[in-house]
Amino acid sequence: MIADVLAETTARMTRAVDAAKEDFATVRTGRANPQLFQKLLVDYYGTPTPLAQLASLANPEARSLIITPYDKSALKAIEQAVRDMPNLGANPTNDGNIVRVTMPELTAERRKEYVKLVKSKGEDAKVHVRGIRRKAKDELDALKSEVGEDEIARGEKELDALTRQHVDLIDDALKRKEAELLEV
Q1: What is the pLDDT tens value at each position of the chain, 184 positions in all?
Q2: Under 8 Å CB-to-CB from 47, ≥6 apart: which residues?
Q3: H or E segment at 175?
Q4: CB–CB of 2/159 below 8 Å?
């Protein structure tokens, strides 16, 4: 029973770490990266639709991105969604077939803002992992009547080690992203 709780907790914490890494990828660095637009929702006929379902993304140069919509009627909506995207600072252009997004050069001040943003996303991810730990600890405490206290204590030690391991993974990803952001 304790092993089941720990296995489920491990899976949930791993998903939380993966979500944090995906979240970090949406913060731009000096290069144009299609992952920046992973979470961008476009108002397509009144329905918020992920950009990846509406268009293909190509990265021909370091600071530009080409968005080719599958449906040409979505061009204006895609252009507007990119323009309204927070923390991007890009001005998309529409030539009737594609949307070209040229990323402006990052200033030192803007890089520091992005580092703060990534740190807050990292802290949110750590809080989520700790919430998963808290829920797993409650599940372990509920098992006290079925198994011995020594087993519960051993399970809690394993749970703490798991939590520490996943928080460290988030910290490592955060350090890599921070270094990437500050790289000129």
Answers
A1: 888 889 999 999 999 999 999 888 877 776 777 877 877 899 988 899 998 899 999 888 878 889 999 988 889 999 888 888 876 777 888 888 899 988 877 788 888 888 898 999 999 999 999 999 999 999 988 888 888 888 888 999 999 999 999 999 999 999 998 888 887 6
A2: none
A3: helix 149-182
A4: no
Task: Answer whether 155's CB lies under 8 Å from 5's CB.
Answer: yes
Secondary structure (DSSP) of 103-153: PPPPPHHHHHHHHHHHHHHHHHHHHHHHHHHHHHHHHHHHTTTTS-HHHHH
The answer to whether the beta carbons of residues 103 and 32 sit under 8 Å apart is: yes
Q: What is the 3-state secondary structure (H, E, C) of 55-112?
A: EEEEEEECCEEEEEECCHHHHHHHHHHHHHCCCCCCCCEECCCCEEEECCCCCHHHHH
38: which DSSP letter? Answer: T
Q: Report residue 160 as tokens.
A: 């703490």
Distance of alpha carbon 134 from alpha carbon 140, whole angstroms: 10
- Angle, vertex CA 31, rays to CA 25 and CA 36, nearest 5: 35
